[in-house]
Design brief:
The complex is a heterodimer.
Chain A (H helix, E strand, L loop, with lengths): L24 H6 L20 H11 L19 H24 L2 H4 L2 H11 L3 H17 L3 H31 L7 H10 L4 H11 L4 H30 L3 H31 L2 H24 L12 H19 L17 E2 L10 E2 L3 E6 L2 H17 L3 E6 L5 H11 L3 H7 L2 E5 H5 L7 H17 L5 E6 L5 H19 L3 E8 L5 H10 L2 E6 L2 E6 L1 H41 L3 E5 L5 E4 L2 H6 L3 H4 L10 H17 L9 E6 L5 E13 L2 E10 L1 H29 L1 H29 L5 H29 L6 E4 L1 H18 L3 E6 L6 E4 H18 L9 E8 L5 E6 L27 H11 L4 E5 L5 E7 L7
Chain B lengths: L5 E5 L3 H13 L3 E5 L2 H6 L7 E6 L1 E2 L2 E2 H10 L6 E5 L4 H9 L4 E4 L4 H34 L2 H12 L3 H8 L3 H15 L4 H11 L1 H6 L1
Parallel strand pairs in B: 1-2, 1-3, 3-6, 6-7
Antiparallel strand pairs in B: 4-5
The chains are: A alpha/beta, B alpha/beta.
């Protein structure tokens, strides 16, 4: 389940405010750090005319290499300092291990003396040009207009430092085995400054160091000088080292090539970005390149001569060619190919294509350059047909260069048979079958350069036509012995070209016409080879391929590890959130912008009566009562349009609709988040009917408490006494006066009947008045009509004890309950029952108020009698009652100073009104017991 | 003092008022009823023996306060208190303050009538006393100044010749003045005279 947040989405860094998604680590630590770029009036807070400001304004802000903003550029590898250090630490560890291993085997001593001389002249002096590369990279970083460019340049500088370190190291270790001068930088410097072969390159480098314009530095360094230098001193030198059994150097240089590749990658990205920002940058870059390329090539021509002076020499021309080819391919990858206008898309990730050949199956990646050894023509046809067929089926362009023993017609026939709509493909121009003569040997001679150029042109043409990829296959049996090596070189150069493009090349070699050397060469120049063995095609892998595969495997494993780690972290976090959401007792519902439910947690069952799965896909309105739906829709629409909310998102009381049709009060909070450009709304819903009920209950309980308190106050403090007395005494006085007067007159025989009548009338009137008062009192006591319900007497006892607990405490009375369980329910008016208990308990408290020499103990008991009736008793340890126990129940009987004596009579009448009895007995050793019975509910009484 | 005595009844309850009036009428007593202390105070006090039957808890004014009020106004009328409450502390205070009786409602008719009689007797006695005093004072005022002097000294117990010596006249003059004063005072004996004088001039008695 998506991780959602209850509150507003987390703010991103203010610097990246307009970025709507959460920023990556790279973005956070790399973006927008160059406050000084385009700052007015000058980059730095100094006089605009101070040299530093002038410098920047001229060579950065003033550079013709411009864009509307450079902040859009991102390093394709998204390197941060942390990532870089992590990565390079691993690489360094690898190299250290290599070195240790080779030292253990004492390899240096085994190196040929001549080879060491080559190293002395060719490798050790590279510390100086590499240092220049480092300085240039730092300058570029310093002058770059955006922090992302700066960072990439700085990491590049760090890469150069790595190389220098290893050169120094190798120098030292070689010096130990061979001659001490090797370690002397002075000695090596002389090579750099005085050796003729180095001077052209040195000139280029030193000129590069004074190309101050930041754009020009970038072009000179990253587009021209460094790629060429790296091609010579990583790639070609590694090859040379291998040839001379200096595996350590080769491996070290191979590792550095990874760094170089990274540099090329970000260079490509920046060039494309710059061109996309301003198309005029293309011409500018080309202009700079036109200036620097010749310089760089001249430098190259100088140094490659040393390749020809190795014990196992390599033709300098060959080296140059390869370097140029690599450089051209690289430039093509930047979109700067001078020849073609078309865009060539470098491959960002490895795409697999169906090879059509079973044994390799789907494992042929773009850029595969493999060869196939065949014995018979049938084998050849077989393999190539299926190769082309799958290409055509994938929408690729197939170029089949045919040579003896195959003819074009045979090829066409075979394809026609294998591919269903072959003719259509032909009509669409997806297939080209040419003879090797025409393709390779125009004019009868194999001109490698010409063929290479033609191939590149053809490829460009094919790309322009928009094919998904290109499959090339050609047979080599036309190649004569003298053409063999140039042909291998052609193959080699093709490697560079196809590495970056959607091109797969299959070269077929006839076993009949290949000798051992040819076979070895073929295997060497291809990534892998296929051969038929026992009727099955098998793969012969080459060392280069193996190494590459191992490297990829290792990288993949590393990546996988990291991915696993990251995933498990994410999963743990998600799990935590999931648990939180799932175990929340609130229902959590997510909906999208259209108001449709995307997700729901299991609490929806409890709250709404729906299983989560039932709700997904339904509109949110199913969870609301009818009358709320329009309000919600209008409000939501308004929010989506204007951002105005019509509810408090932190918590609003609304009404929810249960599946069973019942509406219920609910409290809902909302949250919103954007994920992948989509807005997700989350609601947390809580059923608050219990809370409301509790509120209402509490209110009514308080009312009852207030009522009881008032009554108890009256009955205990005798305020009732005063008011009743006064009310009743007036009419009583009048009655007795009138009566007495009449008696007197009668005694005097003076009573006028008229007078008597009036007197009697008044007596009656006053009598009525008195009884009205009494009735009012009775009504006052019995406030509401008796509402009988089934009660648990023990519960009521507890309630009353709770009510009087302050009185108990104040009077220091200890209470003990002996409540029988279970008690049958009684049918009674709760308030009246409370009143009776209150009266008895309060009486008990007051009876003990004079007691000091013994503990004041109040005991409340409840039990079931044999008759099935309930009996409740209140015992005190007070002053007790006299022998005439029943007298206490007569009205106005009281032993209390302030008492009126109405409590017990009223209680008795209330109990009797419920069909029970109330009586008093003496408690032993002290005090009184007041007991009452009530019939159980459901019994007849 | 002549004139039929009147009983003033002050009670906020109408039926109590009317029933009391009725009861009192059976023993031939006149009653005037008021529903509040205020209305009673506004009424002029007739010169007949009277008493007050008063409910202690009148709205706005407690009985005791009313008692004090009356004393402050120098209205000396005997009070019979009635109360609908069992107010013991109040009753004690009321009695100490000079009430005739304190009855709780409902009361026995005889208790009330007895209390009223006592009150009226008291009032009559007071009335009589006041009348007598007024008489004596009038008589005294009718004496000449020389007679007043002589009679005061006679009441003090001085012999004629002592009085003559004191006042500087002849004894025979004193004898004549004395007998004339006695006549005017209507005193029948010296003892009588002394009583009268004492009543009129209780302070001067002490003074000489």
């Amino acid at each position: 389940m998506r991780i959602v947040q209850r509150r507003e989405p987390a703010k991103t860094w203010s610097l990246l405010g307009e970025v709507r998604k959460k920023s990556s680590e790279y973005e956070v630590v790399t973006s927008k750090l160059h406050y000084h770029y385009n700052r007015q009036p000058a980059p730095f807070e100094l006089d605009p005319n101070t040299p530093i400001n002038v410098w920047y304004l001229r060579y950065r802000e003033g550079s013709p290499f411009r864009a509307d903003t450079w902040e859009g550029f991102q390093d394709p590898h998204q390197l941060t300092y942390r990532a870089y250090v992590e990565r390079q630490a691993a690489r360094e560890a690898y190299l250290d291990n290599l070195v240790d291993e080779f030292e253990r085997r004492n390899q240096d001593s085994g190196l040929q003396r001549h080879w060491v001389e080559v190293l002395d002249r060719l490798y050790l002096p590279t510390r100086f040009p590499i240092h220049a590369l480092q300085m240039a990279a730092l300058y570029l970083g310093q002058m770059a207009p955006s922090s992302s460019i700066t960072n990439a340049a700085y990491f590049q500088a760090a890469d150069e430092l790595r190389r220098i370190q290893r050169v120094a190291y190798r120098a030292k270790s070689l010096s130990l085995e061979h001659h001490a001068d090797l370690a002397s930088s002075t000695y090596t410097r002389r090579r750099w400054e005085e050796d003729a072969v180095w001077q052209p390159l040195r000139e280029t480098f030193e000129k590069m160091l004074i190309a101050y314009d930041w754009g020009e530095t970038f072009v000179a360094l990253n587009l021209v000088v460094k790629p060429i230098f790296d091609a010579i001193f990583n790639l070609k030198l590694a090859e040379l080292a291998r040839a001379h059994e200096d595996a350590l150097l080769a491996l070290i240089l191979d590792d550095f090539e990874l760094d170089s590749q990274r540099s090329r990658d970000w260079t490509v990205a920046l060039v494309r970005y710059a061109i996309a920002q301003r198309s005029a940058n293309t011409a500018l870059i080309k202009q700079w390149m036109d200036h620097w390329k010749p310089l760089a090539y001249r430098g190259m021509e100088g140094i490659v001569k040393l390749f020809g002076q190795a014990p196992r020499p390599v033709e300098p021309e060959a080296v140059s060619e390869k370097v140029r080819a690599a450089h051209d391919a690289f430039l093509a990858g930047c979109g700067l190919d001078a020849a073609a206008v078309t865009q060539v898309t470098p491959i960002a990730k490895i795409e697999l294509e169906k090879s059509g050949i079973d044994v390799i199956g789907d494992m042929v990646a773009w850029g595969a350059h493999f060869c196939l050894f065949y014995e018979t023509k049938e084998d050849l046809l077989d393999a190539l047909t299926s190769y082309c067929k799958s290409g055509l089926e994938n929408g690729e362009y197939c170029l089949w260069v045919v040579t003896e023993p195959l003819t074009i017609e045979q090829a066409i026939a075979a394809l026609k048979q294998a591919v269903p709509d072959f003719d259509r493909h032909v009509a669409d121009g997806c297939v080209e079958i040419v003879s090797a003569n025409d393709f390779f040997l125009q004019g009868g001679k194999f001109d490698r350069q010409r063929v290479a150029e033609a191939m590149v042109a053809k490829l460009a043409d094919i790309w322009a036509r928009g094919h998904a990829g290109v499959r090339l296959t050609g047979d080599t049996s036309w190649v004569t012995k003298q053409d063999w090596i140039p042909f291998c070189e052609l193959e080699d150069s093709i490697n560079h070209v196809i590495g970056n493009q959607r091109l797969a090349v299959l070269c077929t070699y006839s076993l009949a016409s290949c000798g051992a050397y040819e076979i070895l060469d073929a295997v060497r120049t291809h990534q892998f080879a296929l051969a038929r063995r026992d009727g099955n095609w098998v793969i012969i892998e080459t060392a280069a391929l193996n190494q590459a595969k191992a490297e990829i495997k290792r990288l993949n494993e590393e990546l996988e590890e990291r991915v696993v780690e990251r995933t498990s972290e994410l999963m743990k976090a998600e799990q935590r959130y999931r648990v939180m959401i799932q175990t929340a007792s609130d229902a959590v519902v997510c909906m999208d912008e259209s108001g449709v439910i995307l997700l729901a947690n299991s609490a929806t069952m409890e709250v709404f009566g729906y299983e989560p799965a039932e709700l997904i896909g339904k509109p949110l309105t199913v969870l609301m009562p009818e009358f709320l739906r329009k309000v919600h829709e209008d409000g939501f629409r308004r929010y989506m349009a204007t951002g105005q909310r019509h509810l408090n998102w932190q918590g609003t009381e609304l009404t929810g609709l249960h599946k069973n049709g019942q509406a219920f009060p609910a409290e809902i909070s909302f949250g919103e988040e954007t994920a992948d450009g989509q807005r997700i709304f989350t609601g947390f819903v809580r059923n608050i009917s219990e809370r409301k009920q509790a509120g209402e209950l509490r209110a009514s309980l308080q009312a009852t408490q207030g009522e009881l308190a008032r009554i108890s106050r009256l009955t205990t403090m005798g305020e009732l006494t005063a008011s009743i007395a006064h009310e009743v005494n007036q009419p009583l006085t009048a009655i007795t006066n009138n009566g007495s007067a009449c008696l007197r007159l009668l005694a005097n025989q003076n009573l006028d009947p008229e007078v008597l009548r009036r007197a009697l009338e008044e007596i009656v009137a006053d009598g009525n008045r008195a009884s009205a008062v009494i009735a009012r009192i009775r009504g006052f006591i019995k406030k509401a009509p008796a509402q009988k319900s089934e009660l648990d007497v023990n519960e009521v006892i507890q309630e009353v004890l709770a009510l009087v607990s302050p009185e108990l405490q104040k009077n220091r009375v200890a209470v003990r309950c002996e409540l029988g369980k279970p008690l049958p329910l009684v049918l009674a008016d709760r308030v009246q029952l409370q009143q009776v208990l209150l009266n008895l308990i309060v009486n008990g408290i007051e009876a003990m108020s004079a007691v000091t020499e013994r503990p004041r103990a109040l005991v409340v008991e409840s039990q079931v009698e044999e008759s099935g009736d309930l009996m409740v008793a209140v015992r005190d340890s007070g002053t007790g009652i006299s022998s005439e126990a029943d007298r206490v129940f007569t009205p106005f009987f009281t032993t209390k100073v302030n008492g009126m004596g109405m409590g017990l009579p009223i209680s008795r009448s209330l109990v009797e009104g419920h069909g029970g009895r109330l009586w008093a007995t003496s408690n032993s050793p002290h005090g009184a017991v007041f007991s009452f019975t009530l019939p159980a509910a459901g019994s007849s009484s | 003092m002549t004139g039929a005595p009147v009983v003033f009844v002050v009670d906020d309850d109408a039926s109590v008022r009317s029933s009391l009036k009725f009861l009192l009428s059976t023993v031939g007593l006149q009653a005037e009823t008021f529903d509040s202390a205020d209305s009673f105070l506004r009424k002029k006090r007739p010169h007949v023996p009277s008493c007050l039957v008063l409910d202690v808890r009148l709205p706005g004014l407690s009985g005791i306060d009313f008692q004090r009020e009356l004393a402050a106004r120098n209205i000396r009328i005997p009070i019979v208190f009635l109360t609908g409450h069992g107010d013991i502390p109040m009753s004690v205070r009321a009695m100490k303050a000079g009430a005739v009786e304190f009855l709780t409602k409902p009361f026995r008719d005889q208790d009330l009538l007895d209390a009223v009689r006592v009150a009226l007797d008291r009032d009559r006695a007071r009335c009589d006393q006041e009348t007598e005093m007024a008489d004596f004072r009038r008589r005294f005022e009718s004496l000449t100044s020389r007679e007043k002097e002589v009679i005061s000294l006679v009441a003090a117990g001085m012999l004629n010749k002592q009085i003559a010596a004191r006042l500087g006249t002849a004894e025979s003059t004193i004898k004549v003045q004395r007998s004339r004063a006695m006549e005017k005072m209507e005193a029948e004996s010296l003892a009588d005279l002394i009583k009268m004088i004492q009543k009129i001039q209780p302070a001067s008695e002490k003074g000489s």
